[in-house]
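lol ok so funny story. i was supposed to be doing the assay writeup but got distracted and ended up predicting the structure for this chain instead. priorities right. anyway since i did it might as well share w the group, maybe its usefull for someone
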Amino acid sequence: MRVIGGTARGTKLQSPKGTEVRPMLDRVKEALFNILSDRMSGAEVLDLFSGTGSLGIEALSRGAEHVVFVERDRACVESIERNLEHVRFVDRADVIRFDVPRSLGRIQRLGRAFDVGLIDPPYRMTATASAMQPLERMLESTAGQGLFLPNAVLVVHHGRRVFTILPELPFEICDERWYGTSGLAFLRYEGDSHGR
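and the output, tada:
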């Protein structure tokens, strides 16, 4: 696993052994950041279900101002922290070790509002409509707490099925791309924000 673009391009990242981490394939990550390229410079990024921090570190390498990483697994959090030190991005990041759906209060206390959200949950969370409910509740809560700026983009990495969200949520699915068994759903936030 490595950084594939930007100032830290080619840097190898560590991944903990014995965890259920499913790193995004390089070709999918490359496609994702090509699509987001116009949004990266100076962006505030929220990386949920961070795993080893590969996506958030890629964002920092490509010009993001700051990334908040949220991951509950201790070994993964330790990998994120080591990887941030290795690429010298520690001062541009916050790492929160907590269960993602229950972490929103902690994120809010940082006083940041985000331009981009990177959401890479376990595939089982997006496999069926009922499995999606915790993720939808989380999206609803982020909107209610003003964590995203108007027109922010959230990207959800999911398994090969049609991705849907509840129509009452302040997010619109504006694009969806397929790469083998990996899907990327792009959601635009259409609500208000309390600002940074």
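The chain is about 25% helix and 25% strand. The mean pLDDT is 88.
back to the writeup now i swear
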